[in-house]
Amino acid sequence: MQTVPLGGTAGGAVSNFNRFRISASPDAGPLRFEAAYEHVLTFQRTASLSAFNLATVPGGSEWLDLQWTLTEREHVVWRHRFDRFNVGFAPSDNLELTAGRQAISWGTALFLTPSDPFTPFNPVDPFREFRAGVDAARIRYYPGPLSEVDVVVRQTRSPAGEETTALARGLTTVSNWEISGWGGTLYGDPAAAFGSAGSLGGWAVRSEAVV
Question: Hey, which residues does 95 pair with through a beta bridge?
Answer without folding.
Answer: 92, 141
